[in-house]
Amino acid sequence: MKIYITEVGPRDGLQNYPKIIDTKKKVEFINLLSESNVDEIEVSSFVSPKLVPQLSDAEEVFKNIKRNKKIIYSALVPNEKGLERALSVNVDKISVFTSASETFNLKNINMSIEESLNKFKNIIKIAKESSKLTRAYISTAFWCPYEGKIDSMKVRDISLKLLNMGVDEISLGDTIGKASPDDVRELLELILKDIKRDNIVMHFHVTYGMASANVYIAYREFSIYKFDSSVGGIGGCPFAPNARGNIATEDLVYMLKRLGANVMVDIEKVIQAYSILEIESYSYISKLKL
Ligand code: COA
Ligand code: ZN
Predict the structure, then answer these.
(1) What is the C-alpha to C-alpha distance for residues 144 and 174, in angstroms, rounded to an integer?
(2) Of 54, 61, 140, 257, which cross-links 144 as Cys (Cβ 3.0–4.6 Å)?
């Protein structure tokens, strides 16, 4: 099975970065990423510009990037207004997002989990009528900064509700990077009883240094093949204090290649794209000759 990588750097990576990066630079970054053989690029978010000012240029970015036909260009959409904005610039894939924690969801999108699911029904319906691909994130799928450990049954139930609405895939987000390999095993053992692995994406952050171990478990023990990552490991969530970035794309790809996985991403191209941002990275691979 070919590995499917969603590069979330332009969205998850930049959303919390305090210095506004100009639109031209974002476009250049995404155009370079488009040469790296990633499968999907999460370009931006159509959210409140007051809450996430860094991504308030989502339309401009979409209008100006050069699209590679082999790549899916996706974006986050929290509500109908976001959907309208996303459709106006012909986003390929609409990604809604909720959480497995009530407290986090309220802080993040000002809705209870149930309210958000009700809102998504119509968004997914319209997205599908517009021939768009769809994804749903479940943030804090393992640990919440406010509620602690999340019950895996809750994640399973929300996932099933989203899939029943017609969402194509669920991205299970370890928003604060606290999932251990045993947590990942427990959730996947439960969830894969009812859900096909083709519908599951893993989204790990590096805060506690366990992201690579978690990918290893998901890939080796459960044959999960869809992963999110951000080049340079940049990122964090404005509503999850102290959370660090995603697993770095270069680290993820390097490990999967060493495990013999069928992964086509060109690490050097990814790093080249990242380097134009001039943001410091924890990832060391970019400093090595491969
Ligand atoms: N795009 C742009 N503006 C939007 C919007 C969207 N998708 N949705 C709402 N707004 C605007 C409204 O027009 C309104 O503007 P006004 O104050 O000038 O009248 C304002 O935002 C409040 O609208 P409301 O519908 O009451 O939203 P809210 O305050 O309950 O916020 C969300 C809800 C979902 C819009 C907001 O919480 C949000 O954008 N969250 C995203 C957080 C995020 O990106 N987190 C990181 C990813 S995990
Ligand atoms: Zn994330």
Answers:
(1) 9
(2) 140
1 — pLDDT class (breaks 50, 70, 90): confident
Q: Closest Cα to atom 45, ligand 1: which residue?
A: 108
Residues contacting ligand 1 via CB (< 6 Å) = 15, 45-49, 51-52, 78-79, 81-82, 85, 97, 108-110, 139, 237, 239
The reported pTM is: 0.97
Closest ligand 1 atom number to CA of residue 79: 7
**Residue 97 CA: which ligand 1 atom is closest?**
48
Which residue among the candidates 237, 263, 271, 279 is catalytic per the annotation? 237
Ligand 1: nearest atom to the Cα of 111:
30
CA-CA-CA-CA torsion sign (131, 136, 137, 142):
negative
- For 46-87, the pLDDT digits (tens) are 999 999 999 999 999 999 999 999 999 999 999 999 999 999
Q: Say if residues 58 and 44 touch (Cβ distance below 8 Å).
A: yes
The domain tally of the chain equals 1
The residue whose two tokens read 């290893």 is 216
pLDDT tens track for 113-135 = 999 999 999 999 999 999 999 99
* Span 259-270, pLDDT tens digits: 999 999 999 999
Provide the residue range defining the domain that includes 69: 4-289
Token duo for residue 119: 């809102």
CATH number of the domain within which 209 lies: 3.20.20.70
One-letter identity of residue 85: R
Pairwise CA distance, residues 2 & 20, whole Å = 36
